[in-house]
Amino acid sequence: MLEMKVPSPGESITEVEIAEWLVQDGDYVDKDQAIAEVDSDKATLELPAEASGIITLKAEEGDAVAVGQVVCLIDTDAAKPESDATKAPKTEAPKAEAKPTPAPTPVKAETYATGTASPAAKKVLAEKGITPASVNGTGKDGRITKADAVNAVPSMGVPTSGGSRGTERKKLSMLRRKVAERLVTVKNETAMLTTFNEVNMQPIFNLRAAHKENFKAKHGVNLGFMSFFTLACVRALKMYPAVNAMMDGDFMITNDFQDISIAVSGPKGLMVPVIRNAENLSFRGVESEVKRLAIRARDGQITVDEMTGGTFTITNGGVFGSMLSTPIINPPQSAILGMHNIVERPMAVNGEVAIQPIMYVALSYDHRIIDGKESVGFLVAVKDALENPEELLMDSNLKKALEL
After folding, report:
1. For a designed S-S bond to 117, which of 8, 86, 122, 337 qualifies (C-beta 3.0 to 4.6 A apart)?
2. What is the Cα–Cα distance from 389 to 382, expressed in whole angstroms?
3. 8 A C-beta contact, residue 291 and residue 299
4. What pLDDT is attached to residue 99?
5. Which residues of 230-258 are buried (b: 16+ CB within 10 A; e: fewer)?
6. Would the pLDDT of 86 be above 60?
């Protein structure tokens, strides 16, 4: 009998949460078959079977289990069933439905519960701001039990029509809880400000229109906007190193490298893989790395190590239609650049009004170590590089920069 323990998904992670079992108790599993998805505070990962055999589950979905704790047993001496090669995994077989949280019985506006609340129930109701009179008790003689109080929800008003008024109570994943915790920490512990600017994207549009087909044919990746923004940020970070630094207590840590975190949307939510040493990459190198990380994030194969670290973050809300936003810093970094959608707008060009593709950009930064002069200067440097890409990002040698 093999005891399967929770492996360490990464440094500093001490526990994970069983997000979903992909097999059922008593199933025959093959070695390396994915049997569960587990959430850490940084990523959702698959748990593969360490051997073939009949599995016995020792933890429930939603359980928080420590690294090294036994979560299932595998009987390696069990014979493989002859009828079916394996029992259908949970994703194919009808999944045991989670018991829904019992909703409180609707109370008509003119009626009230006749029972009294137990002391424990009173405390829970007081914390929720719910009066006992608005809760129907299920205990003896209508007494309101602690379970009634826990399941009670505040009144959302008296319905005036026959529409649905159902609610659902769902526990957040460990990853989402950790993200929420980190975001609140950023707001509370940093002096975060945001500065804005606009970028005329016409030069990049012209450059891409002329060379994107040859670029893709030669390198197998698209010549997208991300390589221009990444290399523009690398250039600006070298000019303003404080934007590439971070706080550590009373100390400021500066970096002589640029590890650029790229926020991407994955099946489990927002993920932020890191492009290591972006200062050493060409346009082809950046686009290849962005594609590789995006595919791994989409397929749920991204690792904790690939999302750890980073000295500066770029996030693109424009893919969802955002015109302008104040992105929140990705701790312990000190700054983040927000890209937005590109819209044709009138602007002055050489003294005349012209319709140009414009993107608003935003830089959120920690004012504790980045002054206004540096933050504004950084964003202007990014703007200059994007509006003069051939000169400032390609050293006036377009074919060499694009490796055509």
Report:
1. 122
2. 10
3. no
4. 54
5. bbbbbbbbeebebbbbbbeeeeeeeeeeb
6. no
Poorest-pLDDT segment among 75-79, 259-263, 296-300: 296-300
Annotated catalytic residue: which of 25, 32, 63, 371?
Answer: 371
Q: Is the dihedral of CA 39, 44, 46, 50 positive or negative?
A: negative
Centroid of chain to Cα 46: 17
275 residue type, one letter: I
Catalytic-role residue among 25, 63, 299, 367: 367
Q: Do you know the residue count of the chain? A: 404
What is the per-residue pLDDT across 28-80, written as a single tens digit (0 to 9) for each?
Answer: 999 889 898 888 766 677 888 998 999 998 888 878 888 888 989 998 888 88
Is 30 annotated in the active site? no
pLDDT at 275: 95
Q: CATH classification of 2-75 is 2.40.50.100, yes or no?
A: yes
Give the CA dihedral 20, 26, 28, 33, nearest 10 degrees. 20
Structure tokens at 31: 């070695």
Q: How far apart are the two ends of the chain, measured CA to CA in Å? A: 59
CA dist 221 and 215 (Å) reads 7
Query: pLDDT per residue over 89-139, tens digit each?
Result: 555 545 555 555 555 544 443 334 455 777 677 878 887 778 887 788 887
The CATH superfamily of 190-402 is Chloramphenicol acetyltransferase-like domain (3.30.559.10)
Question: Please, what sign has the CA dihedral across residues 324, 326, 330, 334?
Answer: positive
**Angstrom distances, CA of residue 62 to CA of 6, 65, 117:** 15, 9, 30
Per-residue pLDDT at 97: 53
Helix, strand, or coil (residue 111): coil
Q: Is 330 exposed, middle or buried (0-12, 13-18, 19+ CB in 10 A)?
A: buried
Task: CATH 2.40.50.100 in the chain: give the residue spans.
Answer: 2-75
Active-site residue, 211 included: no
**Alpha carbons 87 and 190: distance in angstroms, whole number:** 52
Considering Cα of 122, then 128, then 129, then 131, what sign does the dihedral take? negative
Three-state DSSP class for residue 312: strand
